[in-house]
Each structure stands twice: as structure tokens, then as C-alpha cells.
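REQUEST FORM: STRUCTURE PREDICTION
Request ID: SP-0412
Submitted by: Lab K.M.
Chain count: 1
Length (residues): 495
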Amino acid sequence: MNDGLILHTLPYCIHIQYLILMSNSQKERSRHSNLQNLQMQTQEQRVPSTTIIKIQEPSIKLEATTAGQFLRKLFQIVFYIQLFLVFILVIVLTIRGLIYAGNTNRFHPKKWYPPLLVSTASSAIVSFTWQSICFNGPSKAIKAAFWVSPLLTCAAGVLYVLIGSPVSLAAGTIAVVFGVIQSLYACWVHTRYEYAAKILAVSASFPPHKTATFVTISIITCVLYSSFLFTGIGGATATGTTLDVLFIIIILLSFTWSMQVIKNMLCVTISQVKYMNFASGVEMSTQIALCDTVKHLVGSVCIGSALVPVIGTIRGSARAVNLVAGDTAEFLFSCASCYSGVASTLITYGNRWGFVHVGVYNKGFVQASADTWDMFKRAGLVSLIDSDLTGVFCFLSGVAVGSISTLVGGTWALAVHKSYATEVSLYAFLIGYFMCRIALASQQACVSAYYVAYAENPQSLRFDATIPIRLEELHRYHQVLQSVGSYRSSSWEIN
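STATUS: Completed
RESULT:
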């Protein structure tokens, strides 16, 4: 009976202990706030705010190995060759599709192209508007992304179900389930919203010069490039042979890689400028950084653009498997631990924070990723990086804009020609998703540069107390978990 009483009162004890720790955390936060003010006064005395060094030359570059230089050059050549070949393929497919449509009534270009083109334009407008909102109100933007994205995803899923084809029913089921998962995840991580808003506001409060111009040019480029590629997909859809299906897959793969390269080129450029500012107060020309990226770093960016999505997906799935497996089933737990170990090893050699060192030091992407991750370990930032929501925020923003694009294009196609609605909706989602990710690349670059610069010199007076306070909160949270785990173990031993 005493054992049952212990187990019954255990949650209340944990809750009371957590409230006590949170109360102490609030006192410590007040103390850190005073310390932060003192640090700001000291910084004003040592490093005046008016002392800004302007340079017009690229940062110091490190020599790469022969094998690394060859690999970077190889990826750069492959990327340009596939762009050229896909360009020729799209022209041929478009001309052939228009000729075929003129001779038969199977394909109607006036019913296939307009919904997709309008959804592309709408996703560009929404993406540009959204990135402006993120700059001006990061706290509201983060909350909106985590709560609006599930609703829009479920709405897109309902549209797929209404279309009624086998593919659309499968897509609709996945979309609705994913929307529910997003909602549960938003409830689970709601306590992290405040820190995510703070780190986004601190790192991106003063964007580099001409950032809006570069983002606008990138979005316009994506609109033109997407419209061009999907005209070729429309031409392949007109005939619909087995070979045309292969052509569509090739064009979609090229589109995905190209969008990732554009996004990461912007990330490398912006993160290079912001890193120089965070690390040493240097105000570097954004135009010089862009020219430096285009001339010397395309190969590394292409490698990173191919690796990061794959490794990120593996690591995300590994963390999900760990949550599902828990520690109840020994076999399932061992498999999850093995998979998690593989994912942890892969993230060392391919992560998005490596793009900062790619731009600053002209390192190869794999070496840059390994160096930045090693710095995070030495600075004790790995748990903070894992719990950071800015990357998830950008992802959910992309899903939300992709869902909006799906609703625009899919609804139009469903109204004018139902058989086109499924493919148009899926293509519209891809366009909207990547359009938003490119629009938010500058914010993500600012956050990455802030973390890397802090990891290199945590004692620098250029950083406020945002990260130290968060690290202390995480440390206290882990202490609570450890105490709960030890208390449970002792309770089971008594039983």
C-alpha cells in the first residue's frame, strides 16, 4: 500500500519540484538581466558602437586539399551540366507537348498551365510577405507558423480527398495525419517559442545591407525558373508515355537540387556577412560576399545542397523513432539507439551550420560541417542546437506556403478540369515550399552565423545573455529529468 501511495504521489512531487526550479530560474533570469546590463555598459566602454570597420575584400581563405578541390569542382561541373541538359529537355518537351495538344484533344494547355502559374505567383507573394513579417515580428511569426501550418496542411488534405483519385486520396491521408502530428508537436514544444523568438530577433534584428534586394531577386529567379521547368512537365504530361514519366522525375530532381542550391547560396552569402559582424564587428559588403560565393563556393554549396536534406531527414526520423521506441521494449530500443548513433555520426559531416565556415574560410562542406559541430561540442551547445526551433519554424513556414499554393492551384484545376487537379496540386506544393524556404534563407543564415560565432568565442562582449540563460534552463530541466529517473528506479526497486 505504501508503494502504491508513493507511485500515486510521484507526479505531484515532480510537479512541485519543477515549480520550485522554475521559480529559482526566474530569479536567476533577473540576475542575468542585471548582469547583461552591466556587460552592455562595459561593452560600450571597451568597444564603442560607432566603431565599425568596413572592408571590401573577401575574408581570409584556407587552402583545401587536392581531393577536396577536385570533388568541389566535380560537383560544380555536374550541377552546370545538368542545368544545361534539363534546359534542352524542357524546351523539347514543351514544343512536343504543344504540337501534340494541337493535333489531339487529350491535353488542354489552357486548363493545365494557368492554375500552376497562378499558384506560383501567389506563393511568391505570400513568401515575400511572410519573410517581412518574420523580420518585423518574430515572436508572432513563430506562433503563427506552428498553429497555422497544421490547419493549412489539413485543408490541403481535404482538397486531395475531394479530388478523389487514388493518388490524391493517399496524399490527402498523409496530409491530414501530418497536420495532426504538427498540432501535437506544436503543443509539445510551446515552451520553446520564447527562446526561438529571442534568438531570431537578436541574430536578425539588423540584416545586412541589400538583403531585401537579394531575397527579391532570388524569389523572382525562382518564379521564372519554376515556370520554365513546369512548362516542360506539362509537355511531358501531354503524351504521358513511360519515358515521359522518367523525364518528369528527372526534371523534379533537378528542380529540387537547384532550389536547394539557390537557398544555400543565399545562406552562405548572408551568414558570411553576419559572422564577420558578430565575431569582430566588421561590416562586410554583401555584394562582395555574393561575388565571392558565386566565384569560389558553388562546388561546396552544391555538395551541401545534396547532403543536408538527406542527412537532416535521417536525423529527424531517428529522433522520432527514439520517441516512439522509448525504453520499454529492449529490442526496439536497441534498434532505435543504433539508428540514432548512425544519424549522430552523419550529422557531424553534413549540417547546415557548416555553410557558415564554407563562406568565411572557403572550406569544403564536409570539413566545415565537422569543424562547426566540433565547436558546438566544445562549447556545450549541442543540446541547445537540438532543441532550437528556428529550423523547424522555417520548415513549417514552407509547408504552410506550399499548402496555400496547393489550395490555389488545386481548387482552380478541380473547377476547370478534375483530372489535372492531383498533379497540379502536388507540383504547386513543391513550388510554394521551396519559394518560402528561399525567402526565409536570410533569417536562417543569421541564426546560423550567430551560433557559430558564439561557439568560437562565448566570452565575447558582443553577445548578450540569451544563450547562457537558455543553457542554464536546459541544465535545470535535465536535472529534473535525472532526479525523476532516479526516483522511479528507487520506487521500482522497492516494489
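NOTES: The longest helix spans residues 2-46.
Reviewed by: T.R.
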